[in-house]
Design a protein that fits this description.
2 domains; 4 helices; rod-shaped; Ead/Ea22-like family protein
């Protein structure tokens, strides 16, 4: 079953809510009305969760758009400088593994 998530947030959302509200009003049984009301509330929660998820995705995509700036490596002369450059290289690897870009990856 494939659900069009965009349709849930679009103008059809109100038409679906209207249909469900009409079914609730026409229901003969209190149990059916209760179930329909629960479905309506759950649908509203799902629509809100989808909207929140889209917002969060946009925030995360914005974070991924900017590369992480780290110090340049330019050779080393002693063990301390060698360790410093290895740390920068390791940091770049980990940053890339996390899905971010480093300056110069473009």
């Amino acid at each position: 079953m494939n659900i069009d998530k965009q349709a849930l947030l679009g103008p059809d959302k109100h038409a679906n809510q209207h249909r469900l509200s009409r079914l609730i009003a026409e229901a003969n049984s209190a149990e059916i009305r209760d179930i329909a009301e629960s479905v309506e509330q759950y649908t509203d929660q799902l629509i809100a969760a989808l909207a929140n998820s889209k917002k969060r995705i946009a925030e995360l995509e914005a974070k991924l758009a900017n590369p992480v700036l780290l110090p340049k490596t330019n050779g080393y002369w002693n063990e301390q400088e060698k360790a410093y450059e290895e740390a920068i290289t390791l940091a770049k690897q980990r940053i890339r593994m996390a899905g971010f870009r480093c300056e110069g990856d473009e």
